[in-house]
Design brief:
Elements: H1 2-21, H2 25-42, H3 48-73
Length: about 80
């Protein structure tokens, strides 16, 4: 399970690099920060249960943040 966090870190780094190449600086910095966090957590060697709980917490926070941003911060498309 720790290895999967390092894989998540790698893919966040790839997405961050593509966003940086597309001149989306804030988006790229967000994914660079996530990549660092995932790789750091991947080397801590927690139990599988702890990794599952951390991932669910991450998903809840990201979905709440995405929903908040898309409902209250974005303009209407029409």
């Amino acid at each position: 399970m720790a290895r999967m966090y390092r894989v998540l870190g790698f893919w966040c780094l790839v997405i961050g690099l593509m966003a940086f190449a597309g001149h989306m600086t804030e988006f790229a910095l967000l994914f660079f920060a996530q990549a660092v966090a995932f790789v750091f957590l991947g080397y801590l060697n927690f139990s599988e249960r702890t990794y599952i709980f951390m991932f669910w917490g991450y998903m809840v926070i990201s979905f709440v943040g995405f929903t908040y941003w898309s409902v209250f911060k974005m303009d209407l498309p029409f």
